[in-house]
Each structure stands twice: as C-alpha cells, then as structure tokens.
Amino acid sequence: MATLLQQLINGLVLGGLIALIALGYTMVYGIIQLINFAHGEVFMVGGFASLATYSYVLPESWRDHGHWPIALPLMALGGAVVAVVLAVAMERLAYRPLRNAPRLAPLITALGVSVILKEAVRLWYPGATAPVPFPRAFVDEQFRFQLGEGTVTIGATAILMIVVSILGAIILQTYITRSRMGRAMRATAQDPDTARLMGVNPNRTIVLTFTIGGALAGLAGVLYGIHITNVDTEVGFLYGIFAFTAAVLGGVGSIKGAVIGGFAIGLIKTLSGQYLPGGTQYDLVWIFVLLIVVLVFRPQGLFGEPERVRA
Amino acid sequence: MSKPTNSVTGSVAIPPGLARPLGIGGGVLAILGALLPWVTFLLNDGAYPDKATLQFFDAPYAVSGFRLHVLLLGVVAIVAHFIPVPLRRVLRALGWGLIGVAAVNIVFPLVDGGGFGAITSDGTNFAFGGIVSLIAGIALVLAAKTGPLEPVPQWKTSVPTLVAYAVLVVSFVALLLVVAMMLNAGGQGGVGNPYAGPIFLSLLAFLAGVLGALHGIGLTGWISGLSDKHKWFSVIVLVLVALALPFTEAGTDYWMTTAANIGVYAATAIGLNIVVGLAGLLDLGYVAFLGIGAFVAANFSGAAAAAFDIELPFVVAAIIAAVVAGIFGAVVGSPTLRVRGDYLAIVTLAFGEIFKKAAQNNIGGLTGGANAIPNVPPINWFGASFDESLTIGSLELPSGVLYYVLIIVLVALVMVVFANLKNSRIGRAWIAIREDEDAARAMGIKTGQAKILAFLIGATLAGLAGAVFAHKTSTVAYDSFQFIESVTLLAAVILGGMGSIPGAVLGAALLLVLPEKLREFSDYRLMLFGLALVLIMRFRPQGLVPDRHRRAELADEGADGVPIEELNVHDTPGDEKAVTR
Predict the structure, then answer these.
(1) ipTM of predicted assembly, 2 dp
(2) For B503-535, b where at least 16 C-beta lie within 10 A, e where not — what string?
(3) Which residues form the signal peptide (chain B) (predicted)?
(4) pLDDT reading at A211 higher than 90
(5) Could you tell me the pTM of the whole model?
C-alpha cells in the first residue's frame, strides 16, 4: 500500500514536470502546427542556466540552505530568461523563414536545432559531458508518513513541482481565455489569415507563444534540477518525448489536455516501472507504445478537436 | 530613371561597365596572389607549422599545392573573358572557389597562432598572398553580379555512341582520380597530420570552384545527359571505376575501411531515400532496421555469443536479415494507414526508441544487451577471409579490400533497385503520394499499400546493409543504433538531395569522410550535422544533387506561390528557372 502511494506521488511529481514542458509543445503546435522538437532542449538549457545562475551569479553567502527564498526565485528567473531568449531566437532565426515551406522542412530544422543545442551545452558548459550535480542540501526538506508497514516520503521539491505546474496551467488557461493577447493567440491558431485581417499581428502572437513556452520550460528546468539534484544534456530529448506524448495524449492545442496528459504519463511511467514485467527497464517502452497507440487510434487526443485538413 | 536590375541574389547592384575590369583584374590579382608569399607555406608534403614561415623567398616562383590552384583559377578567369562561355556563371564559381581557398589558408594559421595571413612577418617580409587572393575572389564574384546569370547552355547529347562512351569513361576515370586525390590530400588526419583538415578543405574549395565553372559552361549537364542516355553503360563503368579505387593512391587499409563504412551507410541511406525522398514519409527511427539486420546476421554467424548455435553462409544469413528487417518495416509502416505527416515521424521515432530499449535489455537473449554480440567472424568465401589483405600475382592489396568490393556491389545493387523502382508504377505512385496524398488516392492509387511497401523495401535494403555491417565491424552493440544515427542518415539523404540516388551516396560519403579529415573538429561533428540540417532546409532544401526530373517536396512552392529558393537572399536564383525562361 505504501509502495503504491509512494509511486503515485512520484508519478504526480514527474507528471507535473512533464506537464510544464508539454504546455510549451501544445501551444506552439496549436498555433503554427510545428512539432518543436527542440523544446525539450530548451527545458534542458533552462536547467543548466539556473545552475549557472547559482554557481556563477549568486554571491557565495546566498548559496546556503537558509537563503533559498531569495536564491531559488533568482535561479528560476535565470533559467526562465535564458530559456525565453533561446526559444524566441529559435523562432526568429530557424522557424520563421520556413513559415510557408512544406511541413517537413520546419520539422527537420527543429531536429537540427535540437542537436545543436544539446551539443552546445555538452561542449561548452563546464563538466557537462557527465551529469552536473545541483547543489544538494539546498531545498531538501522531506516529509515522511507511516502507512502500515512502509513509509511514504514527499520532498519539498516534489510539492513545489506539483503546485507550480498546476498553478502555471491555471494562470495560463486564464490568460488565454480572458486576455486580449490570449484571444489573439486563439484567433491565430484557428485561422492566421483571418486573424491578420482582424488586426492581429501573427508574428507578435507567435513570438509570445514561444516566450510563454520557453518560460515554462525554463521553470521546469530549475524544478527538475533541484528535485533530481543533477542535470544532464540527455534529459532534453527524453523529457521532450515524454512531454510531446503528453501533449498528444491530452489533445494537441489544449491546455487542460497537456496537464492531464502530463500527469497520466508520469503515473504510467512510475506505475509500469513498479508493477509491469520488465520493471523500470521497460517503462519507457510502455510510454512509446502508448504514444503510438494514441497517434494511430485517436490522434486528436483526449481533449483535442479532430485535426483540420491542411493543404 | 530606371531602376537597376533587381537581382534576387544581390542587394548590391554593380554597374555593368565594371564587369571587365573586375573580372580581368580579379584574374590578374589571383595570379599575383599565387606568386606572393603566403604565411601558410604548405607544400602538400610539408607539415603546417614548419612551413608556415616566409622561407618562400628562397624560391620565389615555385608554385605547388594550393598556390597552384589559385594560379589556375586566376588564369582560367582571364581566359574565360576571351572565349564564348556564360561568363558571369563561370566567374561566380571561380570567385567562390578562390575565396574558399584563400579563406582556409588565412584562417587556419590564424587559429594556430601563426597570426593573420597578411600581416605575419618574419621581421621584414610580409605575406600578402592570402589577402590578395581573397580580394581577387571577391572581385570575380562582384564581376558576376554585374548582370543576371546567363542560362546554362545545353549541349547536344545526340553524339555517336562511341564518342559518348569515350566521354563517359574519361569523366568517370577523372572522377576516380579526383576522389583518390581528395582522400589522400593531407593524409589521414588526426595525430599523424594535424593539418590534414585545412589541406583537404582548401582542395575541396578549389574543386568546388572548378566544378561550378564546368557546370556553368554546360559540361557537367552534358555528361549527365549522356550518362542518362547510356544508363547501363554508365552504371557498369561507374562500378568498375569504383572497384579500381584500391589501385589508386587511396588504396590503404584505412581508406578501405572508411570506404566500406561509407558503403554501408550509403546503402542504408538509399533505402531511407525510398521512404523519405520518394514517398515523402519522414522516418526518424530508420537506423533500427540496420540494427535488426545486423543482429539477425550476428545471431546466425556462429559467434560465441549468438543466440542460435548455427553458422549459416553469409548469403543466407543476409537474406534472412533482409527479410526480417523488411517484416519489421511493414509493421512500423502500418500506422501510415492512419497517421500522416509529422505525427508519422513521431511514430517512427517511437519505434526506433522501442528497438533501442529492447536491444539494450537483451530482449529474448538476441542482442547481448550491454555486452553486445562480440567476435562476429569475418565473411569467409572460398577460403578468403574478408578482413585480410589480398595478393593477386605480384600485386598486394590492402586488407579490407574484399569488404570494399562487396559493399560496392551491394551499393550498386541497391542503386539499381532504387532506380528501377523510381521509374516504375509503384515509384510514380510514391511520388504522387508525396506530392498530394488525397489526389493520389483519387487517381486510384492504393495509398495504404504503396506506403507500407515503401517502408518494407526501405527496411529490407537497410537489413541487407546491416548484415554486412555485422561481419565488418565484428561487434554488434545496441548503442550503434541510436537516434543520432537515424539523424545522421536523414542528414545524408537531405544533404545529397531527397529522391536523388547519387545524392544519397554523396551525402553519406561527405558525412563520413569529412569527420575523418577534420579530426581536429571531431568534437563538433554532431553539432555540425545539426547546423547542416538547419542551413540546408533554409537555403537549399533540394540538396546538393537535386533530383532533376521532379523537384523534391521540400523545394516545392511555398503557400504564397513563391518558390522557396526566392524566399531567401543568399542562394542562387533557381537554375531551372534560368533554363526554362
């Protein structure tokens, strides 16, 4: 029982992380129908940028446990700012020139950008050829419950992860449904040409989309770092795929879908690792199988609308 | 006032009156540049730093190596003014070649701390050669911008058969010699010769310039027209020429091994080209089929770690490998019935990852997991082990030559399969699907069958290549078949030109030879792949050797009806357009 509860909690934490990344995927796909393959790498760079903020920007005296209320927001800011700059630069330099190209072109470009980002960090961040440790005893409160025979543990970082992801999704949903720019985004997603006629600037809207996606990915990066206590160039690709699966599962373009999809993927990963034959060696395989099944049988996902036929 | 000619290429408008001064002046400058001292004084046999001095003055007019190239480019640029050729096209190619040669030979000593080309001196003497040649190159390029580019002349291809044969033989032999020269330029790279990279790049720039000029006067078009007309003859000559590579200066163990690797990748890339280039289905997990072929062959090879305790003859094992890979191809392709476009790409990626995970976990005891399947014996036919050197009469051939021959035969076979498929009913169906799936279906094409068949055939070819791969590398491990290898294959196809046969081979060759030559950049290999993908999609989506008959989907018109080539500023305005106008 305790094991199950523990795995449920782990799944929710992982799910929150995946949901944060998936939001960026789903928004970008919703608005320009691009699978932004490099989005996972933006998340990874966000993690490294927040670590760099800690190691190279924060004064020495702020790096202890007591200073986390200042240090953590600053790290998050560092990670998010770098991730936003990166995401916007990516859109401007790589994707915008291909706006009218056939669909394979931007996808292949995104693949190239993803490889470039990963390699850039691996080559140029000090020590990034191996996982780089995050400061350990930084935010490390653990809460334990006794449950029958076993114990269940929740770390402060785990709670933070779940709270931030849900809060982020709610704020985003409100912004998109209530604000003027949110309406512009929805209009551009539905029909860019008509949106332009109605006075919406599509380029500005798209940049805004990448900005929000980048910020959330950067935030996810810092949360991942303090929770897992290291960051690695490999995680971008892996979590990018998880997040994409989540976005598709929930229905691409839907905020609610991305969040629910994220939590579902997180739970599937931890529970299949615990209870299915093959254990953690095959937990990724189940997620990929799920991805294939969803794409084949319900490509519009759980909450999405059937895809419009595009020329 | 009339607006100056609105050239797509240039934001700078050069008055036509300057054409001659710039062109001839550039040529003269290039000749001067060749004779002036260069700080990178490398004769092809000398090490970089030793020769990177100004000792040039001891033998003022001796030219060889890259200085000979500069001299040649300059002379040709001047001569071109006095013979009837599309001058601006030729000058543009020569100019870029000159810029390339000069830039490489200026930048490398700069990187090496030798100082900037023009201003390093040994006290009193200055080495202006690089700068002068660079200026010469820029002058030529500017001369080419004084007007629109001329159309490429079309030479008559109705020549007597014997003449055509002679021309083809000569061109293919010349190609062989150039390839051997390129492979050998500067040696193998790495510790042995740290300057192999710049020497090779410099030669590459020169050859690109020459090739561009030849294209400009219509020669390459003529030759490819002839080879189109005498297809079978060209294929046979090409295979013979490729088989002659071991007899040239590039016939070393090292290049035989590299060439065999290129062959494996080229065969796989051609298979991928069927899926991506012809049918327009993006496959991001393609390397899995190579892996399946390799694991199957390894298991039937009699290796100690194999799952089956039988040793099948290579041919049988290769056929089984191809069939198994083909079956998996059909399975992976089956979602194409319902999934389209980039969603399909993700499905194939997921399959690739599932394969990797399964192989990593030693599924069914078939893959050896982290231990891999080591010690796969080399192929052995008629008592000749394929990994040993071969002596025919008094001629000693390097080891690995038999693998090389086998791979050449395999690649030739795959090319023939591809060429025939492409022009067959099914090939046309694939292209129709690539262009517009709904229209293809409306025309009565069974799109589902056709798409699965594309995956099946592509995977079969990859499985065949995998069987050779297993024996050649002797260790088959799951980590040889990761996502990044799929990206590499895709990069080879895209770099060469989607749907184009020579393109896939050229792409694979470039992606494998360049890292061998540019060892000093080996850390940046993957990053350069990524950069290549981005830049090609941006500036030349049709690839280096575009499929001539049908423009690939990626060179298609944009949504605004503007051809992609016109949407960018740096690329040449479409060659095809110039011809049809």
Answers:
(1) 0.87
(2) bbbbbbbbbbbbbbbbbbeeebebbbbbbbbbe
(3) none
(4) yes
(5) 0.81
